Amino acid sequence: MTDQPTVVTPHSGISYTEQSFGLLAGFDVVLREKGLDITGVCPACQGRTVSSHDIGSPHGYKGIFPRRKAGSAPKPPAGPVTVICACGFPHAERPAESGESGCGAYWKVALP
User: Fold this and answer.
1) Do 49 and 83 contact (CB within 8 A), yes or no?
2) Is 12 contained in some domain?
3) d(CA 52, CA 59)
4) Would you give per-residue pLDDT tens digits along the chain (112 residues)?
5) Are 89 and 45 in contact (CB under 8 A)?
6) What is the number of structural domains in the chain?
7) Which of 10, 14, 95, 99 has the fewest Cβ atoms within 10 angstroms?
8) Is residue 41 part of a domain?
9) Is the pTM of this model over 0.85?
């Protein structure tokens, strides 16, 4: 039996702070059948984050994707998408009522 190396995700235990980092590059954008996934590293806490955006919304709003014909592939929106840190690590001072699972950082990612 061989020992498997432990994979450690770099992360900074900064306190929760809502802060904008503007438009950033270096994120992977994957278009899937019913939305897109944006993955990368949070610029504030350095935690790995994944942001999933689905077509439409459960409340009947338009969402970030334009309407499409049944059976056609989704088309991503024309402009950048806002991403919120979702590193999943605990951050001091995160409000209990916050639905977020990150450090409070947010930024925009241009879509291909």
Assistant:
1) yes
2) no
3) 17
4) 456 555 456 788 899 999 999 999 999 999 887 788 999 999 999 999 999 887 654 555 555 555 555 555 556 566 799 999 999 888 888 888 877 789 999 999 998 8
5) yes
6) 1
7) 99
8) yes
9) no
